[in-house]
């Protein structure tokens, strides 16, 4: 993005007042930029666009110990060491309750701002972490697809690089389109070293005719860096950016994903509040591959998830822009119903998806799978995951779901009222 | 063709120096392939970076520590993890037998095990030594299935006959030997049974079979029924053509193209050399399909950093400790820290490395590398020569042409799109 376009972008996004632009947007320090944005006119609520935050839980979250069928005897007998007693769970109704570590989410449930889609999966479940996560992210259960469902939406609306952002070092397939690609932003902020000028970086990022594809993408990453640098500078640093190492490690085989969910969501919050035009955010929490000694490790993860989500949603409820945010939390599969002898669980199938935010209509969606009518020890999915993402496309992004779900005609779930 | 020699050296090792490239061009393509896959004599360069001796894991010396001793033991483990990380980087930089080091890096990403869960640097180094000492792929597989770091990483030490833990068995099939979809869920469960009973001996950095916890029964795996054990199940898998093809496809994916599948003919030629990995690579390098993959592979962060250090004649141990720490943290920021792959699936590939966040970190790292040098006057052509870049695009040349500062020139060369892609 050249300097002129960059300034137009900052003005259009409501981040900079005219005075700041005159002073030269590239030369303004972080503190001054944020000061400017707070003095600028408040964002126009009629201009607010809906935003979605996708939270990926890598490793296969144990859905049965997250939304717990505490009243079902089959649950207690299948995993005696791992099961939560009825008195421990945070009851949602007379059958299901939340894991005791999900206190914040229970509060959101009571406030009717947490939707739980039960038994989400897809036909012929694949128990490979990598293939299954690909299926969720590409929304293509039948055959491998080279693009993610958000990537296809980016292609379809001819989106600028800032339309979809991930706060991970490596780009998730979710955001890869055929011609468009989401941006990866370091949650430590995006500043250039002081010995290099933005002009030089921009020159390095210029496209070259007939360049090999990967070389062209390498060049584009510099152009994206400048664009995203402006976006993130405008958004400011999160008030707290704990390193990934600050959160307790969980003894699970890593299957990808970041640990510093709080830090990632803090950045999302800042971006939303100052009017960054990003519509899709991708964040993640890894470590859910709990094959052994699951209970303690899983509780650590759920507590991290609960605290990060709860404070994010509370913060989002405070601003007009924030009230347009819908959060979706999913994992590649649930775990087996029966525990293994290592007090853990092996790869399974269906699991719950959480949907939360100020706009969300709380309650259950779909149907809890039976614990006795199983498919070789595994739950039978009752909701296709494309119904969830289709609803996000239709109700949050205002797009035609079938167009981006490769023709899939789903059943939209009413967890977000359409505008 | 001389250009093919450059491609060969870039792919087979971490990045040739200008002198190495000139010598290889002189020798010709065939001779260079032979030298790479069957290097003669001991590795003189590597001898200046001997593997560290860590002594006993602090938890092996004291299995029941107080909380204070635990904190001290964790501190020692962290220090030793830093030590082996720096050592491996050093070894990659100074080794003359570049193809050997690169292959070891490949196997690390294949049998991807992370110290973030294993915790013990002794076990990680033992796995590294085991990969280094293996005679061939079959030997590697038989060692890895009972390797204490890998077993611990995939919960094999908690796998009992009463209720098998599937983590190790599944990944053995999916990621290590057969490939996704070449087995059934039933096979996963049966392989899990075959792998029951292994326990870690932290003191000896080995694993031992506890016969009481091993399932002695018959198992049916891929249609064969017998009393499978860890070794016999690996032998069964090694004998399958799917395994041979899978390993060939993984080598192709990492050495030739991460976007197009290996052509059948190339795969068959490589398979003919199984289980000798270097012979499989020789088959790859001398196959006509290899040259067609030029300009398609994105350097992984470690390849990029190690190659840069070799070309700039920087040795990790001679860089100030604080700067070296920043460089290694930078590798973490790029998503590739030695001994810590992001998942059991190993490192990503292709365009996924080319993010805006990655561009930012690479700029910073390249600047730190250049700051270690005191170069005289340099032209864009000099930089291309030092970094073994065939030719600048008009874009990059226009950028470099007006830069007078030699360090900045080198920095820009290191982050240039031309340098990132091979």
TrEMBL record, chain A:
InterPro entries in alphabetical order: DUF1501, TAT_signal
Segments of this protein annotated with the region Disordered: 236-256
Protein origin, superkingdom: Bacteria
PANTHER family in the cross-refs: BLL7424 PROTEIN, DUF1501 DOMAIN-CONTAINING PROTEIN
Protein name: Uncharacterized protein (DUF1501 family)
From TrEMBL, chain B:
InterPro entries cross-referenced by the UniProt entry: DUF1800
Pfam hit, one: DUF1800
Region annotated Disordered, chain positions: 51-75
Protein name, UniProt field: Uncharacterized protein (DUF1800 family)
Protein source organism: Plantactinospora soyae
């Amino acid at each position: 993005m050249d300097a002129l376009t960059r300034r137009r972008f900052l003005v259009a996004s409501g981040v900079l007042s005219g005075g700041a632009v005159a002073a030269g947007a590239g030369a303004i320090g972080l503190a001054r930029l944020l000061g400017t944005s707070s003095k600028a006119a408040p964002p126009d609520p009629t201009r607010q666009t809906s935003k979605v935050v996708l939270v990926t839980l890598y490793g296969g979250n144990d859905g049965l110990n997250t939304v717990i069928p505490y009243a079902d005897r089959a649950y207690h007998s299948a995993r005696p060491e791992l099961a939560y007693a009825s008195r421990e769970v945070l009851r949602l109704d007379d059958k299901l309750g939340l894991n005791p570590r999900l206190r914040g989410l229970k509060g959101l449930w009571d406030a009717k701002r947490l939707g739980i889609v039960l038994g989400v999966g897809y036909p012929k479940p694949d128990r490979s972490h990598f293939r299954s996560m690909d299926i969720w992210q590409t929304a293509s259960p039948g055959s491998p697809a080279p693009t993610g469902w958000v990537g296809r939406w980016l292609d379809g609306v001819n989106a600028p690089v800032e339309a979809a952002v991930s706060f991970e070092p490596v780009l998730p397939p979710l955001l890869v389109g055929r011609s468009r690609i989401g941006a990866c932003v370091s949650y430590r902020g995006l500043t250039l070293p002081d010995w290099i000028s933005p002009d030089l970086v921009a020159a390095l990022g210029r496209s070259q005719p007939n360049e090999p594809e990967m070389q062209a993408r390498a060049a584009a990453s510099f152009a994206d860096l400048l664009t995203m640098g402006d976006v993130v500078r405008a958004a400011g640093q999160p008030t707290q950016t704990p390193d990934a190492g600050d959160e307790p490690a969980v003894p699970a085989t890593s299957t990808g994903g970041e640990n510093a969910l709080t830090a990632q969501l803090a950045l999302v919050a800042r971006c939303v509040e100052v009017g960054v035009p990003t519509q899709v955010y991708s964040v993640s929490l890894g470590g859910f591959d709990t094959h052994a000694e699951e209970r303690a490790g899983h509780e650590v993860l759920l507590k991290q998830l609960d605290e990060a989500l709860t404070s994010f949603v509370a913060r989002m409820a405070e601003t007009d822009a924030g009230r347009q945010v819908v959060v979706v939390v999913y994992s590649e599969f649930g775990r087996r119903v029966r525990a293994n002898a290592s007090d853990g669980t092996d790869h399974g199938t269906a699991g719950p998806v959480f949907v939360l935010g100020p706009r969300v209509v709380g309650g259950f969606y779909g149907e809890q799978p039976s614990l006795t009518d199983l498919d070789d020890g595994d739950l039978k999915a009752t909701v296709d995951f494309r119904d969830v993402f289709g609803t996000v496309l239709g109700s949050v992004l205002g797009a035609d779901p079938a167009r981006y779900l490769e023709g899939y005609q789903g059943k939209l779930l009413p967890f977000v009222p359409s505008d | 063709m001389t250009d093919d020699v450059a491609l060969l050296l870039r792919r087979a090792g971490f990045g040739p120096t200008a002198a190495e490239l000139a010598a290889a061009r002189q020798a010709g393509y065939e001779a260079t392939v032979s030298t790479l896959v069957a290097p003669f004599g001991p590795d003189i360069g590597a001898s200046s970076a001997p593997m560290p001796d860590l002594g006993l894991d602090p938890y092996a010396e004291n299995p029941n520590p107080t909380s204070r001793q635990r904190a001290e033991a964790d501190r020692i483990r962290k220090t030793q993890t830093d030590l082996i990380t720096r050592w491996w980087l050093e070894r990659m930089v100074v080794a003359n037998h570049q193809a050997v080091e690169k292959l070891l890096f490949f196997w690390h990403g294949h049998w991807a095990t992370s110290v973030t869960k294993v915790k013990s640097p002794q076990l990680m180094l033992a796995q590294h030594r085991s990969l280094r000492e293996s005679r061939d792929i079959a030997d590697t597989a038989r060692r890895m299935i009972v390797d204490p770091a890998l077993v611990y990483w995939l919960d094999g030490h908690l796998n009992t006959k009463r209720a098998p833990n599937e983590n190790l068995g599944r990944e053995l099939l999916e990621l290590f030997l057969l490939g996704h979809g070449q087995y059934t869920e039933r096979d996963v469960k049966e392989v899990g049974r075959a792998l029951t009973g292994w326990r870690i001996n932290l003191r000896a950095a080995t694993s031992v079979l506890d016969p009481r916890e091993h399932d002695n029964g018959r198992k049916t795996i891929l249609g064969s029924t017998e009393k499978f054990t860890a070794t016999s199940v690996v032998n069964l898998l090694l004998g399958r053509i799917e395994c041979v093809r899978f390993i060939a496809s993984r080598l192709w994916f990492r050495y030739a193209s991460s976007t197009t599948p290996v052509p059948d003919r190339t795969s068959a030629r490589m398979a003919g050399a199984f289980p000798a990995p270097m012979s499989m690579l020789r088959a790859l390098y001398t196959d006509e399909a290899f040259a067609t993959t030029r300009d398609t592979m994105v350097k992984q962060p470690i390849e990029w950093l190690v190659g840069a250090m070799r070309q700039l004649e920087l040795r990790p141990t001679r860089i100030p400790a604080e700067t070296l720490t920043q460089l290694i943290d930078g590798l973490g920021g790029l998503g590739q820290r030695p001994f810590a792959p992001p998942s059991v699936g190993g490192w990503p590939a292709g365009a996924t490395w080319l993010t805006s966040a990655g561009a930012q970190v690479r700029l910073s790292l390249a600047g730190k590398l250049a700051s270690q040098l005191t170069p005289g006057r340099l032209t864009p052509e000099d930089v291309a020569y030092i970094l073994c870049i065939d030719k600048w695009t008009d874009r990059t040349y226009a950028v470099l042409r007006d830069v007078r500062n030699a360090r900045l020139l080198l920095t820009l060369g290191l982050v240039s799109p031309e340098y990132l892609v091979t």
